User: Which sequence fits this backbone?
């Protein structure tokens, strides 16, 4: 497999092109001032103003380039990511798998902390060699070289990357789509996976992948039904991309404002507390850095097509495996534990009253602490 060091160096011409496209935006009618129909026009204009005038891409680029990066090619598919080694040679390798609509930039603020066993906000004795790739079609793991990038194929590619980096045994963290990748690695790599820690938030109990709920009380069933009804309003993005990804891909590939508002809506819906993209713990410039990498990588259509492949795959989520598994739950929703670990079958359970779908950006100290605690508790064979 071809694997080489990588450094971000977006050409000035691409940065000028982005600014020109933003300045020529043709805005839709400003009909409502809330988020019921998607990102409101006023919110979109404020974000675009920041992207044009207050956001310094070169400063963000330098920040990201302070972290070692790689570019691999698996079956001809580019896979970009971060690789930060701990100063301790005996550190446990950890693969971080992001979800939709993110990319590896989501983890950029916690990588150095995870790799340094005595540094950062949490300290402690658990050292980790950290690998954070973007899923094919996301971030700079672009362009997609073909169809068929479902969860098993992504997991196989990430396994190849870990082996190429010298890690034949490793731990895995996953959220959203990344949680499916983590589960698949347990099935495919078996004992080479030390264990997996998944992140969840209240929205996760209202999807088609929710485990059986026969054990809930009547009141809990009513609460669960209400959560599913509320989540149904949020599934437009998924219905479109898992059925007709090209219908949205042209806009995502051609319009930076569509890429921005498409992602900003998910940050509004899925962060805690629900609010503006700069809601608690999510800095606007960090959001814009993540969106910028998606824009420069041309990732909008890739992510849409990857979701389509996942939805049309024969592989199902929620299959049994024998690897140690834990969950870190963010958000004040008792049903998460009742549904996901009602019988206490998990090796580890961690919960935090605040936080949401993007814990590395919302609650980084808590996530780092849980990763260290869970994988530190596992003794590699």
Assistant:
């Amino acid at each position: 497999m071809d694997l080489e060091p990588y450094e971000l160096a977006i050409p000035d011409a691409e940065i000028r092109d982005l600014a020109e496209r933003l300045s020529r935006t043709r805005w839709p009618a400003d009909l409502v001032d809330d988020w019921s129909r998607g990102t409101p026009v006023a919110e979109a204009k404020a974000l675009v103003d920041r992207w044009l005038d207050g956001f310094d891409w070169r400063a963000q680029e330098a920040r990201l380039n302070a972290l070692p990066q790689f570019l691999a090619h698996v079956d001809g598919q580019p896979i970009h990511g971060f690789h930060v080694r701990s100063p301790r040679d005996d550190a446990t390798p950890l693969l971080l798998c992001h979800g939709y609509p993110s990319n590896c930039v989501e983890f950029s603020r916690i990588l150095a902390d995870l790799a340094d066993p005595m540094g950062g906000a949490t300290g402690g004795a658990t050292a980790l060699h950290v690998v954070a790739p973007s899923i094919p079609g996301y971030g700079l793991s672009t362009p997609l070289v073909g169809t068929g990038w479902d969860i098993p194929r992504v997991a196989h590619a990430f396994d190849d990357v870990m082996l190429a980096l010298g890690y034949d045994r490793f731990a895995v963290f996953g959220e959203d789509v990344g949680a499916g990748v983590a589960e698949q690695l347990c099935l495919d790599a078996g004992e080479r996976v030390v264990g997996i820690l998944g992140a969840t938030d209240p929205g996760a109990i209202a999807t088609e992948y929710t485990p059986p709920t026969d054990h809930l009380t009547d009141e809990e069933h009513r609460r669960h039904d209400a959560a599913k009804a509320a989540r149904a309003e949020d599934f437009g993005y998924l219905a479109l991309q898992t059925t007709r990804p090209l219908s949205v891909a042209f806009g995502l590939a051609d319009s930076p404002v569509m890429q921005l508002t498409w992602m900003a809506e998910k940050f509004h819906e899925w962060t805690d507390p629900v609010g503006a993209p700069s809601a608690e713990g999510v800095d606007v410039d960090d959001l814009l850095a993540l969106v910028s990498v998606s824009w420069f990588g041309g990732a909008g259509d890739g992510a849409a097509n990857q979701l389509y492949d996942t939805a049309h795959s024969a592989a199902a989520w929620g299959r049994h495996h024998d690897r140690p598994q834990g969950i870190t739950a963010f958000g004040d929703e008792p049903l998460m534990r009742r549904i996901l670990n009602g019988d206490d079958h998990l090796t580890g359970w961690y919960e935090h009253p605040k936080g949401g779908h993007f814990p590395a950006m919302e609650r980084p100290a808590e996530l780092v602490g849980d990763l260290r605690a869970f994988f530190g508790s596992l003794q590699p064979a």
